[in-house]
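User: Batch of two.

Assistant: Item 1 of 2:
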Amino acid sequence: MVSEAVETVAPFIFTLNKDLLDLNAMEMDSVLKHLIFDILKCDDTIHFTNDKGISRKFKVNRGEGLLEGRGIKGFFSPYDAQHLYAVATTDGNIQVSGNPPVTADTLLSLGIHPQHIDKTRQVLSSMLGLQTTNEKWFSLYHEAVSLLNDPEDNQLLCLPFLRGLDIYNYQVRTALAVFKRFKGRVLLCDEVGLGKTVEAGMAMTEYIIRGMVRRILILVPPSLVEQWSTEMKYKFNQNFIKYDDPAFKSMGDEAWLHYPKVIASIHTAKRQGNRVAILKESYDLIIVDEAHHLKNQKTIAWDFVNKIKKKYIMLLTATPVQNKLEDLYSLITLLKPGQLKTYNYFKQNFVRDREGMEAKNVDQLRPLLTQVMIRNKRSDVDIRFTKRKAMTTYVSLSAPEQELHDQLSAYIRRNYRNKESQLTRFTLKNLQELMGSSFHALVPTLDKLARNENLAETDRRIFMKYQREAERIVGEYQYENPKALQLLKILSEFNDKLIVFTKYRTTQTFLSNFLRDKGLSVAEFNGSMQRKQKEEQIALFRDKAQILVSTESGGEGRNMQFCNGLVNYDLPWNPMAIEQRIGRIHRIGQTRDVFVFNLAAKNTIEYYILDILDKKINMFEMVVGEMDMILGDIHDEEDFSDIVMDAWANTQDEESIKEKMNQIGDRLVENKKQYLKVKELDDSLFGDSMKVRKGD
C-alpha cells in the first residue's frame, strides 16, 4: 500500500523482464524499484493499469525485488518491447504503456521537411523504444535519471540499486557518513552481526554510482572470498572476479591490471609475485575485511596494504583491539597516518600498563578515534535479535558401514602420512569427508579412483574392493540408513519447515528420494540449477513443501527467513562454512528463534569436531560472526579442516585421537576467553561515542 498520494511525475522507462511470468512474478529493475519504493513509498501492494485496458493489483516483494500476483503474465505478456513507460498517478497507482507512435502528421506539424520524415521517424521511434543492440539509449537514460539527484543532499543514490536487503536506519546513516564525513577512509567496527559488509557495500556502490570509483580491490580471509563475491553480485549488482577464477589465473600478473574489480585472499595477494603486480597499480578503493589481521605493523600483510596506492580505504573488524592497544594504532595509521602521531607519543599518552591492555586519557583519545572510526552496538540499533538453539544427535553406523569406514580410514591415514604416496592429501581428505556425508556420496569417487590408470595397480584394486562394498551397503541399507532415519524423527518432532544441508549433490539426491518415498513434500536447491528452477524450488518450499534439501552453493542472497530450522546432515570441517549455513536463516530480519540440528556418526572425525565446537566453545549458540573472532590466529596459520585432518591422520587409537582433538579444543577455549576479554576492553574504550547518529 502507498503511504500517501503523490503528484504525477514524468514517465519512467523500465526494463520488462519476462523470465518469471510463468511463476506469477516479474523481477523489477532498478528504475521500477526507485519508482515504487522511493517515490511512491510502497512496501506491500500496488495497483497497475495499462494501455491495453487491463487493471491489476500486485504484491511488492522488496526482499526478492519482485512483483507477484495472479494475472501478472496477462498484464505484461501483450508487450513485445524490451522497455515500457511507467507513470505514477496522483492516487498512487502506476500507469504502464508501450512506446507512443511517431506519425508523419506530428512531424510535419513540428516543421520537419517532408524528405526527412522517414529518417526522423525511424530515429525517434528507436529512441522512444530504446531499440539499440548495445542499449546506449537505455544507459543514457539511467545517467540522466541519476543527474536529477542533488549530490550535496543527505540522500544515498545507491538505495534503488540494492536488492534482497532489509536496510536499517543505522546502516544508511553509516554509509552516508563514510561518504560525506569520513571521505572514504574509515574503520568500520560494528559489533558482530550488524552487517559491516552491507555498510561497506552500500558506501562502495554510492561511490560507483557517483562516478568516483572504478578500480576496486577487496581483500578478505580465504574462507570469505566466495561469500563476498556472492554478496557483491546478488545484493549490490557488482560483478567482481575472484583471484582463483580460472580466467583470472590464466592471465598471470596481467590480471591485476586487466580486471577493475577483484576479490582476493589477503594471504595470496601479499605473496611476492602478486604483491609486485598489485603495488604497480593505483586503486580507487580498497576494502579489507577482518582487518584485525593487520594489527601488527611489522608484518608483510600490514606493509603490503600500507603500500598499495589507493584513494579510499575501508577497514572492517568487530575487534579493532585484539591483544593490546598497539593494534588500534596500527589500523588507524593505515587509514590516516599521523592521526595518533608517533607510536611513542601514543604509548606515552594513552597506554597505562606495560602489557598495553589498559588505556588512559580516554576522554582525549576518543575524539581522535571518532574522526576515523564508526562503531554501532547491538544495544543501540533498531533491530531485534533472536536466539539460536542447537541440538546434536550422534548415531551408530550399521556393522557393515562401520567396518568399511574403519578400513578406508586406516588406508587414508597410512597414505596421508606417506610422503611417497601417489594420492594427494586433498584427495585423501576429500575421501574422509565424503564418508562423513553418506556412502552414496562415496561411491562415485571410489569408482573414479579405481579407474585411474595413473595409480598403482595395488591401489586401484583396493579402491575397487571398497567401491563394491560401498555399493552393496547403499543397495541393502538404503532405507535403514541411521542418519536418514534420525532425520525423519527430527522432521516429525519439529513439525515446521526445515532446511537440510549437505555438501554433496549425491547425498542431496539420496535424501530427496528417501524423504519423498516417506510421503513428504520436498524442494531441492543447488548451484547447478538455472534461475527459473531456483525460483520454482524456493516458491515450492515457501508455499507448500516442509523440507528444502540444499547444497552449500546456490542459496546465497536469498531470503529464507520464513524458515527458522536447519539440519546439518553432514558437517563441514571448517567452522566458518557451518556459520555461513546458519547465516542463511539466522540473520537480521529473522523474527523467531533459530533451531540448529546436527547429525554425526559416532567414532568419525565429525564426531570429534562437533565435540570441540559444541561442547567446548558452544559455537552453535553464539552471536553471528563471533566464531571468526574465536578462530583468530588459528585461521591465520592453517585452515581449520587441515588441522583436524592432521590430528586424525597422525593418531592410531581412540585415546590418542581424543588427546589430539582436546588440544585443538583447549586452544579454541583460550581464544574464546581472550575474545571476551578484548570485548570488555573495546566497550570500556569506545563506549557510545563511535556510533553514527542522525544528522552525522
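Item 2 of 2:
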Amino acid sequence: MQILSESIITCRCAQSLYAIKVLRSHGMNDEELRLVFKTVVLAKILYATPVWWGFTSAADRQRIEAFVRRCVWLGLYRASDPTLTQLIADYDDNLFRKMLYSEHHHYYYYYYYYYYFFLLLLIKHLFRVTPSQ
C-alpha cells in the first residue's frame, strides 16, 4: 500500500531526524534526544497503526523497521526498547481491550449486542427440542 504507508512516513520522519541532529549539534544530551525521538518520530510512525499496518506489504514493514534500526544506530532509540512490531501489537491489543471493556468506547455496546445475540442462538441450537415420534 504505497498510498500512505512507508514512503510518506519515512520522509516525514527523516525530516524530523534532521531536526534532532541539529539539536544534537547544539549540545542537547542523549537522554533528551531519545525523549524527543520517542515523542516526535515514533509518534508519527505509530499514529493510527491499527488502521494501516495490516495493509502494508512485508517490504514496506521492513523499510519502516530499517528506519527504526537506523535510529538505534544513531543512538536515538535503545536496542533494549521494544521493537516496532511489539509496539504496534501492544497498541492493537490496547485498542481491542478498550473496545471490549470501556463503556465509553463507541463499539462497546455493539460488541455485547452481537455477543448476546449469538449466545442466544447457540443456546437455542443446543437445547433445540426435536419432535419425538
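The chain has six helices and no strands.
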